[in-house]
């Protein structure tokens, strides 16, 4: 993901935020598993996005129903237990955590979001986490590292980034995010948690619009295993502590939106690169005459276990891409598709064409493999990033037990 | 699959058929890769079903467009090359094979179906197969074993069955099928080839209706990897050589239909059991108020790599089943689903319930694991059989190369 020139890596975190983390015993190995992020400023604005599964985790329900999503001050997040498929009891546990954190911070309950990730179907020990609220509040610090650790599950790569954004009008703001996700990652939202902080001073409407656009271009465009989660949550907080105001619909807002877009795309790509057991990244770009068709084909290629195992094995078997294209558009035969892999054209007008096998072999052995598919017509395009499927995915998921 | 009492395993193949096979060099290891099945009787009736991929293989196109599907006499099938995504050149090669076989057998071109399976995107060497037509015709024999070998690709289990069917009116007919399939197996047709022969004397309309019903309950209800193929073909031939007439809409026809149903369900289950690298079979039964919803949930569970890896690892993680249910029905939260695994109820009213962990651990370690899911409402039901996902699937598919 190319980074715009007005965006640079930053040593400094956004002003006005503090983080803490501790081990509450949710992870069997005793690692950090509960984290808290807090904005110190009254007047902080926010926005949130969630997955749309029919089986929504209790923390998602509680945050959606009991919070003012435009004016959050804090997020309490845990790993090791998703608190999903836990019914009313799960909602009560999530609410208890929310209330304890609000009391410990001295803010309103509706200002505290809750998020969970981990095993589905086990009731969250909310009492235990609630009992940690005081310690979490007392140990808040200016470093997000432990917080980022605490939200990890099967992640092997770190997923936090800190940026400085220079706005056209001359102001400089900080932007940071801590993210987790490696499996159960898919469409219409990747299965992940992401918490974004900025010290820009913004309208809640700006945060909401920019976050929505950036999520659509990042976490909505990746697939590790095609599996929609129950817990996906992205929350962005803008503290205003920089005192740099970003006017809605200004050049500053556009520039800030570009930075947010680059940030979330970089983290989304890191999720794909960290796809459980992943060795390489696939990138599929489908062009053609109808948005629904190009979307379906891109999803079918990205989620095909045959394409994904070929990607893992550096197998130049482009026939599997053709198979996925055909499966996505039943009844459309004969379909005049074209396929290029890593820039090597392998099929045109629905049929294979001669190509240099050495060039294709080199393309499929690269760290990132680009699949370009052209369907009849023009004007629509869909892009997705996806993980390969290897032995490690099986090992992780055959042995990751309740 | 329970076998009706009027159906028994048979040593004898259906009368009036002959089979042959040889190695034409399509498989690199020199194994049998071309097979021919022929009905000796003029007046043979038939029916066929194909997949509906947007990328239909040349043999499917040729058989659909150039054959009289109700009056086929022979099928020429090859493994090692799918002749899919090969455009007009592929169609010409398939037609060349068809014509050579018709000439060698002395039947009309429209009486010879062609079928292929193997690598997608490589042009079929039709000339080479056509050159074998004479030898195939000269070596026809009363044994289907070599033919069944010749259509295999990554199959490790044999997939042919021979039955004797005792009809209510007292007649006895034979019914047999040779089948292949282990990967690229999915919905709206499993990715496979199946050739069915009977010596019953029937109307072509009966064959078509019974085959359609049996396919919907068998090859349409299995998933190895959720991948629709380009080449799926099921062809049934009824020679009439038994001289036992099956009257349309009679008890005899119903009894014969039950036998055909048992035959195809048994072969479909064998495909699932032979799913590439599979260790156990999953069976998902979803009940609820809407056919579309129960279908979607059953497919989502059967195709979920998280459910499949858990099945492989005997992992009692029912939360992944809940995740798949929710993903299949976005926006429906809160969803009052219930889940039982191997008869052990683990969730009710959308939430986990206490259960005996030893009983669940035993259930998920069985050779077949039953997942029962209840959604709100009643009257609709969907059943699917599916393979687990293990290291061998990765090995086979990461190393099965063009």
Describe this structure in words.
2 copies of one chain form a homodimer. The first copy, chain A, has 402 residues and is an alpha+beta fold. In chain A, 32% of the residues lie in helices and 24% in strands. The first copy, chain A, has helices spanning 58-66, 87-105, 126-130, 133-138, 145-150, 204-216, 251-273, 291-303, 305-312, 319-328, 357-364, 391-399; strands at 7-9, 17-22, 34-39, 45-50, 74-78, 112-116, 160-166, 172-180, 193-198, 222-223, 233-238, 281-288, 338-341, 344-348, 351-352, 368-374, 380-387. A 7-stranded mixed sheet of chain A has the order 10-17-12-16-13-14-15, with helices on both faces. In chain A, a hairpin with a 2-residue loop joins strand 13 and strand 14 (344-348). The longest helix of chain A is centred in the middle third of the chain and has 23 residues, at 251-273. Chain A is globular, with a radius of gyration of 22 Å. Chains A and B meet through helix 2, helix 9, helix 10, strand 15 and helix 12 of A and helix 2, helix 9, helix 10, strand 15 and helix 12 of B.
